[in-house]
Amino acid sequence: MKILEVKNVTKRFGGLTAVNNVTFDLEEGEILGLIGPNGAGKTTLFNCINGVYKPTEGQIIFKGKDITGLPTYRSAHLGLSRTHQIVRPLNELTVLENAMVGACYGRENMNLGDARKTAMEMLEFVGLAEKSDVLAGALNVAQKKRLEMARALSAKPYLLLLDEVLAGLNTAEVTHMLDTIRKIREQGVTIIMIEHIMHAVMSLSDRLIVLNYGSLIAEGSPEEVSQNPEVIEAYLGDPDLAARLLEEEKA
Amino acid sequence: MKRIFKPGLLIPVAIIVVLAIWPLLSGNSASSREAMFTLIMSMALASSLNIILGYTGYVSFGHIVFFGIGGYAGFWAITELGWHILPAALLGGFMAALIAWLLGLAVLRLRGAYFALATIGILEAMKALVINLDFLGGPVGLEMHFSEYKRYGGPMESLWMVYWSMVFLAILVTVVSYYIKTSKFGLGLMAIREDEDAAEVMGVITPRAKTWAYVLSAVFPGIIGVLFFFKNGNIEPGDAFRLHFSIEWIVMIMLGGAGTVLGPVLGGGIYQWLRKTLLTSPIFKDYQLVVAGVMLLVIVLFVPTGIIGWLRARSAKLRRVFE
Ligand SMILES: Nc1ncnc2c1ncn2[C@@H]1O[C@H](COP(=O)(O)OP(=O)(O)O)[C@@H](O)[C@H]1O
Ligand SMILES: [Mg+2]
After folding, report:
1. Mind listing the domains of chain A with CATH numbers?
2. Burial B45-74 (b: 16+ CB within 10 A, else e)
3. DSSP string spanning B189-217?
4. Whose CA is nearest to atom 1 of ligand 1?
5. What is the whole-number distance in angstroms between the Cα of residue A14 and the centre of ligand 2?
6. How far apart are the first and last CA of chain A?
7. What's B149's domain CATH number?
8. A108 to chain B nearest CA, in Å?
9. CA dist B208 to A47, A112, B186, B192, B195, Å?
10. B292-305 tens-digit pLDDT
11. Whose CA is closest to B50, among B252, B244, B319, B209?
């Protein structure tokens, strides 16, 4: 079953077209990787999907319901959660309270008691349980990324949008986070992940889509996409150079 | 098992109760009653403002507008319609809440300094409006005949009745403040305070939550306005809509700790006690506003979280004692 349909979505900021006529579908249970150079419009596309921005043109269909232009809290209630590329912890609240906000106001609209239980489970899941009493502002970046994740998961979403959750993490932290994402998928949550770390996104995703200057330039399995000359050019500017680099990497 | 003994609620209520019975224990009960009235009223007003300012993060500078609106509505009902103080006080609270709701639809879209400025604009506009309303006495305001107090057993009895009503209200505001702070609703408000956009992404219906917070923070000042002006015997625009009183409430909140239950109670008490001390000191009596200003500056620069906020930041244990 299709969980998400993005139809001809365009988002303009004044004269700048950040997302240009993008169309794709997402099957339930899938992990979709969303890649593309910096400034390609990936975050803006997320913002259009969950209602932070109203698309200039096009439609967003979530679980068969047209959610285009609905306030972002409505999409949260329907089961769409996300993390932020630039972390947004609620600094003066504790780590537990941060996750409880997600649980209380997310898809299941929990009361405080249930929310506390769910939030604690999710903190354990992402490995932040021992920090539950700490103020969120006091966490380091890696912990704040995991808090973003715990908060989004506490809402019990059907669809999770992950915006560069691996950026800025060290190797051990990346491994830990990849593990976490795999476990989330095992629980049946559908995921779109924006990621720059190629080996990570290649190994996790069932399918990839590539944005460049706001347009969708490629779509397919990780293998197909990584062989696509247009994608290689978008990343490296020179297809020959890119091909050589790919060869070297294989060797 | 929920604990019956909740220090977060018990401490502020105990402070109010101890102060409230002080006039009965001290020799000169009339003058200490007046002093305690001012103190306890400040605690209640600061706690009310704290709901929108401290929990939600919206700095309502001109919040005294609700005190004035409620005061006028109740005073008018008493003097012109011959109402008893009780329904008049409820009318005052209702009018303040109603107007907060209507204004909220417009100004709660604004953020940060724009919201703060808008609330000052509202205050000045309301004052100008009342000055031009003849049925509210225009610039002179309304007077209450002395004989009005007979209904409650005489002037002395009326003063005590107003006093105990104020004590009751202060406790009620504290209880409401505590239950907001520890509820799901309060969690949503604090999420808005910390990051409104992130709160919305997590599903907090921010327009609705902010409106409720604004209405709740307006209703008690509305009721208190009726008590205050009934006790005063007259109401005029200058007293009902005095911006610098609003600013003093903010100083009280900041001193005690914004966004805490105990903070505004403590801050209101300390501030009024200081003010009284300064007023009676010949050196300081002309400078009390300067002192308030300097105090605000020092707090904002060095202890922006206030006394209770500072204590709460020390450890999770203290957070369980001081809400
Ligand atoms: N709110 C905004 N106003 C104006 N321009 C924006 C806004 N948000 C993003 N942009 C622009 O849109 C383009 C795409 O940005 P973004 O979606 O953040 O890219 P990515 O996440 O792929 O790095 C960039 O040129 C960026 O400067
Ligand atoms: Mg981005």
Report:
1. 2-79+158-250 (3.40.50.300), 85-156 (no CATH)
2. bbbbbbbbbbbbbbbbbbbbbbbbbbbbbb
3. HHHHHH-HHHHHHTT--HHHHHHHHHHHH
4. A13
5. 19
6. 40
7. 1.10.3470
8. 11
9. 22, 19, 13, 11, 16
10. 788 888 888 888 88
11. B252
Contact A192, A34 (CB under 8 A): yes
Residue of B190, B195, B202 with shortest CB distance to A76: B202
CB neighbourhood size of B112 (10 A): 10
pTM over 0.90: yes
> What is the spatial distance between Cα B129 and Cα B117, in angstroms, rounded to a whole number?
18
- ipTM value for the complex: 0.91
Give how many domains chain B has, as a whole number.
1
Q: Does A16 contact ligand 1 (Cβ within 6 A)? A: yes
- The owner of tokens 């500017």 is A237
- What tens digit of pLDDT does each residue of B75-99 get? 999 999 999 999 999 999 999 999 9
The whole domain housing B113 covers 2-321
Cα-to-chain-centroid distance, residue B152: 26
Parallel, antiparallel or unpaired: strands A215-220 and A207-212: antiparallel
Provide φ and ψ at B322, rounded to 5°.
-105, 115
Is the alpha carbon torsion for A180, A185, A191, A195 positive or negative? Answer: positive
